[in-house]
Design a protein that fits this description.
The protein is an alpha/beta fold. It folds into two domains: 85 residues, Leucine Dehydrogenase, chain A, domain 1 (Rossmann fold), CATH 3.40.50; 146 residues, 3-Layer(aba) Sandwich (Rossmann fold), CATH 3.40.50. The protein contains twelve helices and eleven strands. The protein is globular and about 55 Å long. The chain starts with a strand and ends with a helix. Bound molecules: NADPH dihydro-nicotinamide-adenine-dinucleotide phosphate.
Length: 304
C-alpha cells in the first residue's frame, strides 16, 4: 500500500512558519501582513473559500480585509477598487476570488493587480519571473505541492514527471517548478494521444484536470508518486460505482449523502500501485491556502 501524503499536516507546518514570520515582524515593530480579498457576487463555493481564507488568516495573525461587491458591479468599479488597493500602503496582498460573475473580465482584473501584491501569482510579470527561474510571487497550489514533495524527500532531479493539465493556475506553473528542480517534464492535456501510456511513464504524476477519477490504477507506474490536485463533486451513481470500486467507505458515504468530493485520480486504485498518493479531500486542498498566506508574508516582507 502507498503512503498517504497528508496535505493537512503539511499545511499546518507551512501555516506555523507564517505565524512565526508574522511574530518576527511584530517583534521588530512592523505591522501584521494584510491580505485584501475581493469577492464579487454570490457564488456559494466562493463564499466558502473566502471564509476559509479569513479563518486561516486569523489563525496566523494576518489581517484579512474583505471587499464584497454585488454581482452586477461594472468592470470600471472593480478596476477602481483594485487601483485603490494597489496604492494602499496598509495592504500587502490582493486576491480577486474567481470565478467572477458574467460580464466581468477576470484577466483584466488579475492583470491590474500590482505584481508586488499579486499573492495568487497570476500576473504575467510574476509568471515571467517563474519562467526565468527568478524569485517572485508564485502560484499557490503548485508552490505548495512543491513544498509537500520537498518535505517528503521526493528527489526530483532526473525524475520523469508528467503533469496532467496545462492551466495557468496549476498545470503550467507546476511543470515549470518541476523543470527548475531538474525533473524531465511532460505536460499532457485534452488533446494528448494515448494518455494512459504517457501517464505510465511518470515517476511523479501530477493530475490537475478537473475530471473525477480520470486516472485509473492501470495508468500509474508501480512505485510512482501521485499528486492529485483535482477537486470534483461526484453526484452520478454509475460514475461513483466505477471510480470508488476499490473504496468501499467512499462508496458508502456517497450512498448516504448522494454526493462526495473526489480527485482526478482513483484513490483506492492508486493506493495499490503507487508509492505515495495525496488524498482528496485532505491533500492539495489545504495546501493552497497555506501557499497563499506564505505569499502574503513574502509580499509584506518585500515591501517592509
Ligand atoms: P482548468 O479547467 O483550467 O484546466 C484543466 C486542464 O485539464 C486543461 O489543460 C485541460 O486540457 C485538461 N483536461 C481536461 N480534460 C482532460 C482530459 N479528459 N484528459 C486530459 N486532460 C484534460 O482547471 P484548473 O487547472 O484550474 O484545475 C484543475 C483541477 O484542479 C480542478 O478540479 C480544480 O478544481 C482543481 N484545483 C484545485 C486546487 C486546490 O486547491 N487543490 C486549486 C486549483 C484547482 P485543455 O487545455 O486541452 O483544455
Amino acid at each position: 500500500m502507498a503512503t498517504i501524503l497528508d496535505g493537512k499536516a503539511h499545511a499546518d507546518r507551512m501555516l506555523e512558519a507564517v505565524r512565526q514570520g508574522v511574530e518576527a515582524r511584530l517583534a521588530s515593530g512592523l505591522r501584521a501582513p494584510a491580505l485584501a480579498v475581493v469577492l464579487v457576487g454570490d457564488d456559494p463555493a466562493s463564499h466558502v473559500y473566502v471564509r476559509n481564507k479569513s479563518a486561516a488568516c486569523a489563525k496566523v495573525g494576518v489581517t484579512s480585509l474583505e471587499h464584497r461587491l454585488p454581482a452586477d458591479t461594472p468592470q470600471a468599479e472593480l478596476d477602481a477598487l483594485i487601483d485603490r488597493l494597489n496604492t494602499d500602503p496598509a495592504v500587502d496582498g490582493i486576491l480577486v476570488q474567481l470565478p467572477l460573475p458574467k460580464g466581468l473580465d477576470s484577466k483584466e482584473a488579475l492583470h491590474r493587480i500590482s505584481p508586488a501584491k499579486d499573492v495568487d501569482g497570476f500576473h504575467p510579470m510574476n509568471q515571467g519571473l517563474l519562467l526565468e527561474g527568478l524569485p517572485g510571487l508564485r502560484p499557490c497550489t503548485p508552490s505548495a505541492c512543491m513544498s509537500l514533495l520537498a518535505h517528503h524527500g521526493v528527489a526530483l532531479k532526473g525524475l520523469r514527471a508528467v503533469v496532467l493539465g496545462r492551466s495557468e493556475i496549476v498545470g503550467k506553473p507546476m511543470a515549470l517548478m518541476l523543470l527548475e528542480q531538474h525533473a524531465t517534464v511532460t505536460i499532457a492535456h485534452s488533446r494528448t494521444k494515448d494518455l494512459p501510456a504517457v501517464c505510465r511513464e511518470a515517476d511523479l504524476l501530477v493530475a490537475a484536470v478537473g475530471r473525477p477519477g480520470l486516472v485509473e490504477g492501470s495508468w500509474i507506474k508501480p512505485g510512482a508518486v501521485v499528486v492529485d490536485v483535482g477537486i470534483n463533486r461526484v453526484e452520478d451513481p454509475d460514475l461513483a460505482a466505477r471510480i470508488f470500486a476499490c473504496e468501499p467507505k467512499k462508496l458508502e458515504t456517497f450512498q448516504a449523502k448522494g454526493a462526495v468530493l473526489c480527485g482526478d485520480v482513483r484513490f483506492g486504485e492508486a493506493m495499490q500501485v503507487a508509492s505515495a498518493v495525496t488524498p482528496v479531500p485532505g491533500g492539495v486542498g489545504p495546501l493552497t491556502i497555506a501557499g497563499l498566506l506564505t505569499n502574503t508574508l513574502m509580499a509584506a516582507d518585500q515591501s517592509k
